[in-house]
Amino acid sequence: MIRAFELAVHQLADPRLRTVIWQSLALSLVLQVATGVLAWWCLQHYAHFDSEWINTPIRWLGGAAVVVLALMLFPASFGIVVSVFMERIADIVEEEHYPQLGRAHGIPVWTGIWTGLVFFIVLVVLNVLMLLPYLVALVFFGSGAVLFYALNGWLTGRMYYELVALRRRPPGDVKAWRKANLWPLWLTGIVIVFLGTIPILNLIVPVLGTAAMVHVAQTLRPPPFRSPESAR
After folding, report:
1. Residue 198: pLDDT band by 50, 70, 90 thresholds?
2. Which tens digit of pLDDT belongs to each residue from 108-151?
3. What is the distance between the alpha carbons of residues 112 and 83, in angstroms, rounded to a whole number?
4. Is the dihedral of CA 67, 151, 174, 208 positive or negative?
5. Nearest one of 141, 138, 158, 155 to 75, comparing CA atoms
6. CB-based burial, 96-132: b 16+ in 10 Å, e otherwise
7. For the residues of 123-160, what is the DSSP string, one character each?
8. Contacts of 94 (CB under 8 A, 6+ apart)
9. Which residue range is the domain that position 107 belongs to?
10. Residue 163 domain-assigned?
11. What is the sign, positive or negative, of the torsion defined by CA atoms of 95, 97, 99, 101?
12. Is residue 117 part of a domain?
């Protein structure tokens, strides 16, 4: 996994990726502003708890709370950016590092966009619903960040892998490979989400994460009881 991210970082200088990076930056900026507005709306409408000791700090630290909530919700926007640019990014990475694979059959554009939108909605809803558990875990156990990265990392790793893998395998095989490689995909998702909570860097994470997942997909072990053809 570490090697996958190293290769992805090195290829960011690839001239073929520069146009994609700038386009994804523009879309990421738009989504960053949108998530900031959404975070403010969520804070105003849902951050009202029965306990005053929770409400008072939230109101007092409203600006900081919006920034934190925006960073929490920003990983949800990855799905939209990835769904738009994934095909081009994956093709560039495979042409450079895995030319023996040949051209992927790809997935329909609207399938990718729909997957990205569903991912966005699911992550936003889950993170809004989990806001109070995050706060409770942070205050009482100091593990709010662990809970956040674990939940979002699992969903992110799953989404990135499925979009990359569906370019070459049917849905049934993709599901089998995902189940057989739960931990490496989960850890990859956690790294992507962690990088996505770092300001400025988070703007290129969809490109970096997609490139890294292409490499990770080439290192996964085949599922049990699969024919050699499905393991290719």
Report:
1. confident
2. 767 777 777 787 778 777 877 777 777 677 666 667 778 888 88
3. 5
4. positive
5. 155
6. beeeeeeebeebeeeebeebbeebbeebbeebbebbe
7. HHHHHHHTHHHHHHIIIIIS-HHHHHHHHHHHHHHHHH
8. 101, 104, 214
9. 2-217
10. yes
11. negative
12. yes
- 121 domain residue, yes or no: yes
Q: Are 99 and 112 in contact (CB under 8 A)?
A: no
Give CA–CA dist 157/150, Å, rounded: 10
Residue pLDDT, tens place only, 53-66: 666 666 565 556 66
Residue 158, class by beta-carbon neighbours within 10 Å (0-12 exposed, 13-18 middle, 19+ buried)?
Answer: middle
* Residue 231 pLDDT: 43
Candidates 153, 132, 156; CA nearest to 144 is 132
Counted domains in the chain: 1
pLDDT by residue (tens digit) across 139-187?
A: 666 677 788 888 889 989 998 999 899 899 888 899 999 999 999 999 9
Nearest to 112 by CA among 73, 93, 74, 86: 86
> In this predicted structure, what is the pLDDT of residue 230?
47
Record the tokens describing residue 47, joined without a space. Answer: 């951050």
CA 11 vs CA 63, 89, 156, 169, 200: distances in Å:
37, 10, 22, 25, 19
Whether 72 maps to a domain, the answer reads: yes
